[in-house]
Description:
The protein is mainly beta. 8% of the residues lie in helices and 44% in strands.
Amino acid sequence: xxxxxxxxxxxxxLASAGGRADTYDxxxxxxxxxxxxxxxxTFSNVVVTVGQLISFDPVVVPVSGVPSPNAxxxxxxxxxxxxxxxxxCASVSANDTCGPxxxxxxxETGSISVMASSGDSYGVYVPTNQPxxxxxxxxxxxxxxxxxxxxxxxxxxx
Length: 158
């Protein structure tokens, strides 16, 4: 009996190692392990019926293509002669999201939080129905692709 427990423990400990396609079916309580080596012996397609789950370490696997919260950095620069705040928005996959209520203060750096996936393209703009549209424009970083390096969107007011 002790050797069965030792083998089961080793199998459960190694079940997720190496990126193999091991599976667990909660309807039948069966764990299928593609390949496992215990005590110098290699076993393939091992099916274990789990009687009781004592503990586990959850593994979070990023799923490609699923949108998650991302931030676009925004810096508003220039003159406050005509206005002190500027509303700035971002468009991602035909979904528009704007910055904080009341906009960004001239001289402020902040961010717009959007739902996007790595590789999605985005564009930043000052809405045409805002007073700032006549006095401010995006001077750099107005578009890009979500990923490891993204430029700050710079809005310059005059």
